[in-house]
Amino acid sequence: MKPGITKDLSSLFLRLALGMAFLSAVADRFGMWGSFSQPNVGWGDWEHFVKYTEKLNWFAPHSLISILAWVATILEIVLGITLILGLFTRTSAIASGALLTLFAVTITIALGIKAPFNYSVFTAAAGSFLLATIDRYRWSLEGALRTGLKSNAVATIEVSAPDCSKR
């Protein structure tokens, strides 16, 4: 396989995997994967997610816990969607890496070093930062828009060029 296509496929796969992981976590906290205590369900509802947020952020005032839960959820929705679509990819990748690093550190402080490794949080953070180093996102909405804008610019120049042969 050619290096260019490998890079393009790898960045697409990484974008989709990270984006779907964020949206899957959000779906879990709203009960879309099932209810609490069912197999493969982490929280199952908002209440259990807020309790988990409080456990991880034991140092934060109780009044901030609900806000932290909502901020994390909104960020995960926005980053999940932008990564899947490939829109603002570099910014989304850096923000994802920062958010995941923050999660990893918080989980480590609250639960110990093994917990973030069990959920590959450090790996996802590293993947996010690696995604930010890609020079182009070929199979992405921003890539399509960029290609479309270049094509339209060339077409506009060709159409608007004066016909000098009739002089």
From TrEMBL:
Keyword Cell membrane assigned to the entry: answer is no
Coiled-coil segments on the chain, per record: none
One family name in Pfam for this protein: MauE
What GO biological process term is on the record, naming one? methylamine metabolic process
Would you indicate the residue range of the signal peptide?
none
Q: Per UniProt, what is the membrane topology?
A: Multi-pass membrane protein
Gene Ontology cellular-component terms listed:
membrane
Methylamine utilisation protein MauE domain location: 11-111
Q: Where does it live in the cell? A: Membrane
Task: Enumerate the UniProt keywords alphabetically.
Answer: Membrane, Transmembrane, Transmembrane helix
Regions that span the bilayer: 64-87, 94-113
What protein name applies here? DoxX family protein
From which organism does this entry originate? Pedosphaera parvula (strain Ellin514)
